[in-house]
Design goal:
The chain is 31% helix and 26% strand. The radius of gyration is 22 Å and the shape is globular. It is built from 11 helices and 17 strands. By secondary structure, it is an alpha/beta fold. It starts with a strand and ends with a strand. It has 2 domains: 148 residues, VC0802-like; 218 residues, Rossmann fold, CATH 3.40.50.150. The longest helix has 23 residues. The structure holds S-adenosylmethionine. S-adenosylmethionine binds next to helix 7.
């Protein structure tokens, strides 16, 4: 089946995530892509997509007319090339008018722009509640939204967990999902290792996605934080009786020489160096790089002897903001390849595109997708 994704803030990263999981991924416009999947994609497992939709094979009016009895809440997002707030609004009003003739009562959601924001779609429970519908228009094609990113659930997972550390645990849950998805489609219960587990964001997302979390960290305090957060999550989500939770392991270990047990995939944010609030002068940048590089390469060297050919490894490593607004990277891809890994080649995104950051952020994360060779 063909599906449509509304891509996130960094579309090339969203595309890379889709490409690692699905086939025929094609970018239609800046923030839209189509892809094929045998199963209906679950928006709650995708960190990089804002909405997932399916193509309407019948005329849009026909679809709306035949919705179950009761009032319809309708939102239109117009992604066509020359779309404006006005084109989306008049499309919605036109549909409302015709539906009225068929005896259907419709509440149209007012657009602030040509497309409805994730927040508006989510808070109006579009695609969630009976008869709450969002239609995506793209030129002459119409798509029915099947799922919208659950911003409330993300911020709860991020902010309500009991053990937080401002210096360490800032990895957004969405990015943790993206890293896990970069490992490709994995079997249920697969063991996901995070050897720099910190407060456990990757482990949390792995558990929620039906995988077995396996975390190690140099710091005993972080190990305790991860355990506490995972216990909290499992209780919140009723996962305490799951095999994945029972088999979960979190312990102290130096990623440079630790001997892990079974590993199916690796997803992690490595050590990112000292926290920084201003652009580092050259000397500080050099010392941060000198501190991070041996830890990252040492870890990959150690890991390489312990995993099978084909094992997926997705890592986030630091990159630092420069005065000219660009980011200074570690430039370690060649060295990583020499350690027995291939950097995954993608159709829609290049390695340069995979830099996760917010405007002005000092320490960004370069995302590297590897397969053991
Ligand atoms: C950027 S934090 C990762 C944060 C994590 N993603 C989270 O959810 O909180 C990096 C972590 O690497 C750990 N670390 C640093 N050097 C390490 C090493 N050689 N081996 C294992 N862990 C290490 C630190 O203790 C820290 O928890």
């Amino acid at each position: 089946m063909k599906y449509l994704a509304v891509l996130g803030r960094q579309p090339k990263i969203s595309l890379a995530e889709l490409e690692c999981l699905f086939s025929d991924v094609n970018q239609l416009s800046l923030n839209l892509a189509t892809f094929s999947s045998d199963n209906t994609p679950d928006i709650d497992r995708l960190g990089g997509s804002l909405k997932i939709a399916e193509k309407l094979e019948i005329p849009v009016l026909e679809h709306l007319k035949n919705l179950p009895e009761g009032k319809i809440t309708l939102g239109i997002s117009d992604y066509s090339k020359n779309a404006t707030k006005k084109t989306a609004w008049s499309e919605a009003l036109k549909l409302k008018k015709i539906l009225k003739r068929f005896g259907r009562s419709v509440r149209v959601l007012e657009n602030k722009e040509a497309t409805l924001s994730t927040a508006i779609s989510h808070h109006n429970q579009l695609a969630e509640k009976k008869n709450h519908v969002e239609i995506i228009k793209y030129d002459k094609e119409y798509y029915l939204v099947l799922g919208v990113q659950n911003i409330t659930a993300y911020s709860k997972r991020d902010q309500a967990r009991p053990a937080r550390d401002a210096k360490v645990g800032m990895l957004p849950p969405k990015l943790a999902q993206i890293l896990i998805n970069f490992c490709g489609p994995l079997k249920k219960n697969s063991i996901i290792l995070d050897p720099f587990c910190g407060t456990g964001v990757v482990l949390q997302e792995a558990l929620l996605m039906g995988f077995t979390p396996y975390g190690t960290d140099l710091s005993d305090r972080m190990v305790e934080y991860s355990k506490k957060n995972l216990k909290w999550l499992a209780e919140e989500k009723n996962l305490t009786n799951e095999e994945t939770y029972a088999n979960m392991e979190i312990c102290i270990g130096d990623a440079i020489d630790f001997e892990w047990q079974k590993i199916d995939a690796v997803a992690c944010e490595t050590y990112l160096g000292p926290p920084m609030s201003t652009i580092p002068p050259d000397i500080k940048l050099k010392s941060a790089k000198q501190e991070c590089k041996p830890i990252i390469l040492g870890f990959l060297k150690n890991l390489s002897t312990q995993i099978k050919k084909g094992t997926p490894v997705a890592i986030a490593v630091p990159a630092w903001l420069k005065e000219n607004g660009e980011y200074s990277r570690l430039n370690i891809l060649d060295e990583i390849e020499n350690l027995g890994y291939n950097v995954l080649k993608l159709k829609n995104s290049s390695e340069k595109d995979l830099l996760y950051h917010r405007e002005g952020q000092i320490v960004a994360r370069e995302l590297i997708i590897l397969r053991k060779n």
